[in-house]
C-alpha cells in the first residue's frame, strides 16, 4: 500500500531531523495558540500575516510531494511524523507522547485553548481523536495491530482544558479483531471511556502484516 516507505536514516541524522521537526512544529503550535487568544488590532494582524506568509514561503521552497506517510528504518522503528495525534512534524497534533508498559499504554497531554469545545472544556471530538490513536497504538504495541473499525466513546463528565491522562489496554483478540479499552482521566476522575475494535485489513494480512506486527510507532 502506498504511503508506507522504507527510508533508512542513520541515528545521528535521524536525531537531527527529529529535533528540527519538533522545533518548527512547536513554534507553529505556539502561533496557533497565540492566534486563538490574540486581542491585537488590525495593524498588528496585518504585520503578523505578512510574517507568517513569508515563513510559509520559506517552508514551501522544498516540500514533499504529498503527505509524510509512514516511514520505516530497517531496524523496524517507524516514523509517523505527520500523524494528526502523534506527529512531531504536525503542529495540529497536541502532540501525544505514548508510554508503552508491558500490559498497558498511557499518556499525559496538555490541551490548551486550541482544543476547546464547550467553554473552557475539551472538544469531544478531540478526546475521541486521542482515544482512537491511544487505543490503536496500544493494539499495535501488543503485536495485534489494525485499523479502527469501530470506536465507541462514552463521555461521563466534562473534561476541562488542561492536563489529561489517557490509558488503554487490550481487552481481547478475536481473529483479526483486537478489542481495546481506554479512559481519559482529568483531575483524578474518569471523564471519558472508550472501546475500540481494531481490524487487521485484508490487504495487510500478508507481507505488510509482518512489517506492521514488528514495528513500534514513533510520532
Ligand atoms: C496502526 C496504529 C494506529 C491506529 C490509530 C489510528 C486509527 C485510524 O485512524 S485508522 C483510520 C480510520 N479507519 C479506517 O479508515 C478503516 C476503514 N475501514 C476499513 O478499511 C475496513 O472496513 C476494515 C479494515 C475495518 C475491515 O475490512 P476488512 O479487512 O475487509 O474486514 P473483513 O474481512 O470484512 O472483516 C473482518 C472481521 O471484522 C469485522 N468487521 C468488519 N468491519 C467492522 C467494523 N467497522 N467494526 C467492527 N467489526 C468489523 C467483520 O465482521 C469480520 O468479523 P469476523 O472475523 O468475526 O467475521
Fold and architecture overview:
The chain has 2 domains: 1-93, no CATH class; 95-215, Thiol Ester Dehydrase, Chain A (Roll), CATH 3.10.129. It contains 4 helices and 10 strands, in the order βααββββαββββαβ. The chain has helices spanning 11-37, 42-59, 124-141, 207-214; strands spanning 4-6, 70-72, 77-79, 99-100, 105-111, 147-155, 162-174, 177-186, 189-199, 216-218. The protein is globular.
Question: Which features would summarize this protein structure in a list?
Answer:
219 residues; alpha+beta; Thiol Ester Dehydrase, Chain A; 2 domains; 6-stranded antiparallel beta sheet; 4-stranded mixed beta sheet; 4 helices; 32% helix; binds octanoyl-coenzyme A
Kindly report the average pLDDT value: 93
- What summary fits the major beta sheet? 6 strands, antiparallel
Q: Please, how many helices?
A: 4
Share of helix, binned: 25-40%
What is the tally of beta strands? Answer: 10
What binds here, in terms of ligands, is: octanoyl-coenzyme A
- CATH-scheme architecture of the largest domain: Roll
Sequence stretches where pLDDT stays below 50 over 5 or more residues = none
**How many domains, in number, for the residues?**
2
Structural class by helix and strand composition = alpha+beta
Shape: globular
- Element-level helix/strand string: EHHEEEEHEEEEHE
Task: Look at the structure and give the CATH class of the largest domain.
Answer: Alpha Beta
Radius of gyration, CA atoms, in whole angstroms: 19 Å
- Strand content is 25-35%
Please identify which CATH superfamily of the largest domain we are dealing with. Hotdog Thioesterase
Widest sheet, order of strands = 4-5-7-8-9-6
Amino acid at each position: 500500500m502506498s504511503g508506507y516507505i522504507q527510508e533508512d536514516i542513520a541515528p545521528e541524522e535521524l536525531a537531527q531531523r527529529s529535533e528540527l521537526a519538533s522545533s518548527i512544529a512547536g513554534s507553529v503550535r505556539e502561533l496557533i495558540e497565540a492566534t486563538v487568544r490574540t486581542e491585537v488590532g488590525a495593524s498588528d494582524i496585518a504585520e503578523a500575516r505578512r510574517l507568517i506568509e513569508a515563513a510559509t514561503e520559506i517552508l514551501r521552497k522544498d516540500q514533499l510531494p504529498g503527505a509524510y506517510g509512514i516511514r520505516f528504518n530497517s531496524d523496524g522503528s517507524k516514523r509517523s511524523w505527520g500523524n494528526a495525534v502523534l506527529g512531531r512534524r504536525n503542529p495540529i497534533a497536541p502532540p501525544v507522547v505514548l508510554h508503552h508498559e508491558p500490559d498497558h499504554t498511557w499518556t499525559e497531554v496538555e490541551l490548551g485553548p486550541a482544543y476547546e469545545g464547550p467553554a473552557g472544556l475539551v472538544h469531544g471530538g478531540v478526546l475521541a481523536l486521542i482515544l482512537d490513536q491511544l487505543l490503536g497504538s496500544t493494539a499495535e504495541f501488543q503485536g495485534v495491530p489494525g485499523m479502527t473499525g469501530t470506536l465507541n466513546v462514552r463521555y461521563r463528565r466534562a473534561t476541562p482544558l488542561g492536563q489529561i491522562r489517557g490509558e488503554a489496554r487490550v481487552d481481547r483478540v478475536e481473529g483479526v479483531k483486537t478489542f481495546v479499552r481506554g479512559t481519559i482521566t482529568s483531575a483524578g476522575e474518569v471523564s471519558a471511556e472508550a472501546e475500540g475494535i481494531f481490524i487487521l485489513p485484508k490487504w495487510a494480512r500478508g507481507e505488510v502484516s509482518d512489517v506492521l506486527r514488528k514495528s513500534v510507532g514513533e510520532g
